[in-house]
Amino acid sequence: MMTEAEANETLMCPFAFSAMARLTLGGAKDLALALTRCQASACAAWRWHGPAERGFVIATDGAGYCDPGCSEPERPSDVPPSWEWMSGRKWEDPPGWAEPSAEMKARLRGYCGLAGKPEVP
Predict the structure, then answer these.
(1) pTM exceeds cut of 0.85
(2) Is residue 67, in this structure, part of any structural domain at all?
(3) Exposed/middle/buried for 65, CB within 10 Å: 0-12, 13-18, 19+?
(4) N or C: at which end does the chain have fewer Cβ atoms within 10 angstroms?
(5) Section 51-61 average pLDDT
(6) pLDDT at 21
(7) Beta bridge partners of 97
(8) What is residue 82's predicted lDDT score, i.e. its pLDDT?
(9) Residue 98 in 3-state DSSP?
(10) Which of 46, 63, 81 is the last residue before a domain boundary?
(11) CB–CB of 94/58 below 8 Å?
């Protein structure tokens, strides 16, 4: 299992291997290497491991609801500074702090599904 960035840096795509051979013969070796890197989630063979759930901490100092746009209360010490304040958009949405999408995506792990699912300890 690896992140998308790790896959792009370390894996070569078997789908693109034949294209690399043609480009290398044409003298475009650097372009060939760039084009044969794993494309991770941009590829149909990429498989995610585990749920893609965004971290969320509910604000506990109020009645459980605030009007949209209400101000952020004091941030609890266990909420990372990069997390965003989200006021409840409707009655069912509690106010709280949400993990940014980029951080969630960076911690997700996946694998190339061409060879089947790897063993996970």
Answers:
(1) no
(2) yes
(3) middle
(4) C
(5) 76
(6) 66
(7) 57, 85
(8) 94
(9) strand
(10) 46
(11) yes
Give the per-residue pLDDT at 67.
67
Is residue 99 situated within a structural domain? yes
Would residue 67 be called left, alpha or beta, if left means φ above 0 and alpha means ψ between -120 and 50 degrees? Answer: beta
Are 3 and 31 contained in the same domain?
yes
The DSSP bridge pattern shows strands 109-112 and 96-98 to be unpaired
* Residue 65 banded pLDDT, cuts 50, 70, 90: low
User: How far lies 50's CA from each of 54, 66, 81, 108, 117, in Å?
Assistant: 12, 32, 25, 8, 12
The rounded percent of the chain whose pLDDT value lies above 90 is 8
Strand spans (E) along the chain: 46-49, 56-58, 84-86, 96-98, 109-112
Task: Measure CA 9 to chain center.
Answer: 16
Distances (CA, A) of 55 to 44, 58, 102, 105: 26, 10, 12, 11
Identify the pLDDT of residue 80. 92
Same domain as 24, residue 10: yes
